[in-house]
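Appendix C reproduces, verbatim, an entry submitted by the partner laboratory led by Prof. M.T., so that reviewers can inspect both the input and the predicted structure.
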Amino acid sequence: MRFTIALAPLLLTTGALAQDAKTGEVIGPSYTDAPEMAVNPSQPMGTLHGFVMLSQDSKIYPGIRQLQNETTAKRDAFGNRIAAKAELQSEPAPYRREVIVYIPAGYKAGTETPFMVVQDGRDYATRVALALDTLIAQKRVPPMVAVMIQSGGGDAQGSERGLEYDTVSGRYAEFVETEVLPLVARNYRIAFTKDPEGRATMGASSGAAAAFSMAWFHPEWYRRVLSYSGTFVNQQSPPDPATPEGAWDYHAHLIPESPKRPIRLWMHVGEKDLHFDDPESTFHNWPMANQRMAAALKAKGYAYHYVFAKDSVHVDQRVVGQTLPGAIEWLWQGYRK
């Protein structure tokens, strides 16, 4: 099924690290949409297209849904869900997944192009398209395609979305590479670049953790990552002995203890993001996790830009509206076709 949409004409406390200009940029507490987020009928506009993928056609993600039982109802003292064995928290179930594709104005079918993969794609399709229209028209980024992929549904431990996004592995990147991109290429005659410097991935919350995992486990495919309120906490379920604290292990162990990878990361967190008052021992404090990520990246010499948003909540859309164009522009700095 396809559809087409025409665009209209380590570390320190949260407070202390937020104020460290060498570690991050502090914005807010008031926010205004960037001018690039408004429709500009005087410039060329790309188009949005889409199709639906069915779970029955996927070899990598045949589909699950979260069970409602004593296991999935369990919470720790701070209200966080608890990881469990797969058979105790989920059961096989079908899903339908939307894939929305932004094609820039003037793209010639079959021409090799850089691109961005966006998790929870339906939620960001319009804003990503508006930002890219202006950035491309002003030659601030190269013309590129955006492949915006909806998850298989649900949320958190035991869900299809949780399995795809919160699992610390290369499995989701392999799904995108082997099952999604070939369909997009065939449906719209798009030639995706094989150059990893021309491939970016973006997400918010668990979608941001998935975006980072794509680059971490497959830097030969992806090297540019954009993260809003990244779920770099212990959401992985079922648990994996290799990463017992889930995505928290990125800043606790994987980044500090591994050779530096060729990854460029723009990242954000809100002052009042999820579980901002939780102690470190829960492995579920989003501001703390993101600040630890920034510090770990800094210590290893990564190219990163960290934004701490005052008086801001989880994936605050005010922050997205203000920062998305600049974030995309920063992400693509240094790219030469």
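The chain has a mean pLDDT of 93. Additional entries are available on request from the coordinating office.
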